[in-house]
Amino acid sequence: MLFGDTFHTVRSLLQPNVVLIFLSVALLFVPTPWELFTSNRTSQHDAENIIDQTPFVLLPEPVKPLDSEVTRLLEAAKRMKDSKKIEKADKLFSQAMQFAPDHPELLMQYAEFLEKEKNDVVTADSLYSKVLKRDPTNTAALLRHQINLPQVKAIDMKHYRAIEAKKYALSLIAPSNLAFRRAKREFYFKLIYHNNAIEGNTMTLSMTRSVLETGRAIGGQSIREHNEIIGMDAALHFLNGTMLAPDNPLEIQTILDIHTKLLGNRVVNII
After folding, report:
1. What is the structure's pLDDT at 241?
2. What does DSSP assign to residue 100?
3. How far apart, in whole angstroms, are the C-alpha atoms of residue 89 and residue 83?
4. Cα separation of 235 and 231, whole Å?
5. DSSP string covering the chain, please?
6. Confidence of residue 244 (pLDDT cuts 50, 70, 90)
7. Average pLDDT, whole number, for the chain?
8. Which of 76, 82, 87, 162 lies most in the core, judged by the most C-beta atoms within 10 Å?
9. Residue 164: how many other CB atoms lie within 10 Å
10. H/E/C letters for each residue in 220-243?
11. C-alpha dihedral sign at 47, 48, 52, 58
12. Residue 122 — pLDDT band, cuts 50, 70, 90?
């Protein structure tokens, strides 16, 4: 009996202690609220670092197969090239480009043709660049572009120096030179004529010159066409008189003023 009482007494004393010990040990493995917060921020920061360090890769755009007409032209161009009929092959390539101007396969073949058969490195390199813009992973286009780039830069520099030499030679001519003034005036008439002709104006070069020099109307021509000539003349005078100044920035109001002068006497609502 004594043994039984002693056993119950020890058990009653140990049970709370066992519970407390168990809770104490469990708390050692349970993170505190601060640890949860910092752990969550650390995980988020690590994830952001992984995202930042992941390289950004441009995926090529999906390429549609060439249609039957373009394929026929391309095959014909290849046959002409193999037969050394370079001009005919060039015309066939140009026709195919009108149907599929952005297709990588056609661009690559035409670029290789221009580079090897016609020695037109500049145009070929522009086509290689067009392929790379659509598909940056195209190794063939990238390789040809890297090989041709120094030669293209040299050609561009040669043209730039030629333009600079002509500009310098032009600057040596005195503004009072009669031949120079006559050439500038004739160029001015041609500039107005061609700009209006592109837009459908039926006035000839001699008619355009007559309207600008005499200010008189041409019989049989519409008022609209006369106003287009007068408006272009006013716009060019406005540009030469105001926009060539270095301290005159190009603003929206300036563009609207050019537009107003270009329209002449016509009233157009600008949306």
Report:
1. 77
2. -
3. 9
4. 6
5. -HHHHHHHHHHHHHHHHHHHHHHHHHHHHSPPHHHHHHHHHHHHHHHHHHHHHSPP-PPPPP-PPPPHHHHHHHHHHHHHHHTT-HHHHHHHHHHHHHH-TT-HHHHHHHHHHHHHHS--HHHHHHHHHHHHHH-TT-HHHHHHHHHHHHHHHHHHHHHHHHHHHHHHHHHTS-TT-HHHHHHHHHHHHHHHHHHHHHTT----HHHHHHHHHH-PPPTT--HHHHHHHHHHHHHHHHIIIIITSTT----HHHHHHHHHHHHTT------
6. low
7. 79
8. 76
9. 10
10. CCCHHHHHHHHHHHHHHHHHHHHH
11. positive
12. very high
Average pLDDT score over residue span 105-122:
93
CB 185 within 8 A of CB 173: no
Query: Residue 14: what pLDDT?
Result: 45
Residue type, 3: F
Condensed to tens digits (0 to 9), the pLDDT of residues 41-86 reads 445 545 455 445 545 455 555 667 777 888 999 999 999 999 999 9
- pLDDT band (50, 70, 90) for residue 16: very low
- Helices 86-99 and 68-82, axial angle in degrees (round to 10): 160
Q: How far is CA 271 from CA 235, 256, 268, in A?
A: 21, 12, 9
Assign 54 to helix, strand or coil.
Answer: coil
Tell me the angle at which helices 121-134 and 104-117 cross, rounded to the nearest 10 degrees. 160
Intra-chain end-to-end CA distance of the chain, in Å: 109
Measured between alpha carbons, how far is 199 from 222 in angstroms, rounded to an integer?
14
Instruction: Give the SS3 label for residue 258.
Output: helix
